[in-house]
Design a protein that fits this description.
The protein is 72% helix and 4% strand. The chain is mainly α. It folds into two domains: 3-68, Arc Repressor Mutant, subunit A; 85-226, GntR ligand-binding domain-like (Four Helix Bundle (Hemerythrin (Met), subunit A), Up-down Bundle), CATH 1.20.120.530. The radius of gyration is 21 Å and the shape is elongated.
């Protein structure tokens, strides 16, 4: 990904270039970013594909409303995580998780291979060994735990989900982990999910994952209120 794409995406997502504005003329963009005309045009094509801008014949290139953006495109998502303060942005993520992860946990309990379950076990062990919820190591282990469960579901659609929103999940885990009031409680909640999967109890795994995401939702509300 070129630095031009990242910078232009950031200008749009941050609101420095606002919805409905026209992009500066090509020569002005070339001077600003100091790149070749070919690089600039390729960068603009990428941003068009991400839904941030649209070319209008004889009218120029206009910034699209946020509703048109592909927020799961990695560069757009990375910028949105820095600049978007709308709490619904994060609440929508939890909503999506509540639809997919409980079903993935049930499938992992039913279909997960020994190797897939070992990956969940390893991620859970990393969570236990981390120094507490307000650490990067905990958030990374938390992401690995949920990713391993989705991998164990052996459902390619769920796997694509985790790939698409990996950055958003990591950012949300950082937020909720700081807001959570008990490291021990968090360990036990995750343990309940893990044990249900390990013991091949799909219904229980689904219920325990629903409980875990409900707690994450409360932690998210607390984190957003603190901001």
């Amino acid at each position: 990904m070129t630095s031009v794409v990242r910078e232009m995406v950031d200008l749009i997502v941050s609101g420095q270039w606002s919805e409905g504005d026209l992009l500066p003329p090509e020569d002005a963009l070339l001077e600003r970013f100091g790149v070749s005309r070919t690089t600039l045009r390729e960068s603009l094509q990428h941003i068009v594909a991400a839904g941030l801008i649209r070319s209008r014949p004889r009218a120029g290139t206009v910034i699209q409303p946020q509703a048109q953006w592909n927020l799961l495109e990695p560069t757009v998502l990375s910028s949105a995580l820095q600049h978007v303060k709308d709490r619904s942005f994060y609440e929508n993520l939890v909503d999506a998780r509540s639809l997919i992860e409980p079903e993935a946990a049930a499938l992992a309990a039913r279909n997960g291979s020994p190797r897939a379950l070992a990956a969940i076990d390893a991620a859970f062990a990393d969570m236990i060994e981390s120094e507490g919820r307000d650490t990067e190591s905990w958030s990374a282990a938390d992401l690995s735990f949920h990713s391993a469960i989705i991998e164990a579901s052996d459902n390619w659609v769920y796997r694509q989900f985790i790939v698409a929103i990996r950055a958003a999940l990591m950012a949300s885990f950082r937020m909720t982990n700081r807001a959570s009031q008990s490291h021990a409680e968090a360990i036990e909640t995750h343990r309940s999910v893990y044990e249900a999967i390990r013991q091949r109890q799909p219904d229980r795994a689904k219920t325990e994952m629903l409980n875990l995401i409900a707690l994450a939702r409360e932690d998210m509300k607390r984190a957003l209120q603190a901001d």
